[in-house]
Amino acid sequence: MRTPHVVVVMGVAGTGKTTIGPLLAARLGVPYAEGDDFHPQANIDKMSAGIPLDDADRWPWLDAIGAWAHGRAGLGGVVSCSALKRSYRDRLRAAAPGITFVHLTGDRKLIEDRMAHRQGHFMPTALLDSQFATLQPLGADEAGIAVDVSGGPEEITERAVKALNSLPRASHSDAPLPDAPQ
Predict the structure, then answer these.
(1) Closest alpha carbon to 85 in 107, 64, 101, 67
(2) Is the per-residue pLDDT at 17 higher than 90?
(3) How remote is the C-alpha of 79 from its chain's centroid?
(4) Is pLDDT above 80 for 169?
């Protein structure tokens, strides 16, 4: 039996983490956790006011996500988390060493347009520049994949599933993840 992935869907605001995460979880047959739900209210208030979080704000949030991912080891799960810096991903890996990152990437103009059209989210487009400035893409030594966010949600999810299937796994059968429904 293939050991299910514990996946962190990462990327700057507006890349579709909250859209792709649940779709990916459904395809993998595992639970989804919304990373924003792990933020304390003080963080949400700060971001809503257009103030970027600093590392001191992020550590408890990352620790909570890491604890959730650790609890899903061997069971599988998908959680969204910006995980913009290597140090943030290192902290998540310290809590859950087997996690895999799916980095949603895309053109800044496309992402800004998507952010401008979403309703009821606390992250204003004004913080997008700070997100891109902070972003440190996955290193070659980090377990993960980059997935372009152009196209529709199903297309993006399909790219993610195919890329996850291409990753080496330490403990699994040769059975691939389920193909997209025809």
Answers:
(1) 101
(2) yes
(3) 6
(4) no
pTM of the model: 0.84
* DSSP annotation string for 26-75: HHHT--EE-GGGGS-HHHHHHHHTTPPP-HHHHHHHHHHHHHHHHHTTTT
Q: pLDDT tier at 177 (50, 70, 90 boundaries)?
A: very low
Pair type for strands 6-10 and 100-105: parallel
Q: Which amino acid is at 126?
A: A
Q: Are 178 and 6 in contact (CB under 8 A)?
A: no
Q: Is the confidence at residue 83, as pLDDT, over 70?
A: yes
Pair 155, 15: CB distance under 8 Å: no
Contact predicate 131/82, CB 8 Å: yes
Among 149, 135, 121, CA closest to 44: 121
Integer Cα distance of 62 and 39 in angstroms: 9
38, 34, 33, 79: which is closest to 57 by C-alpha? 38
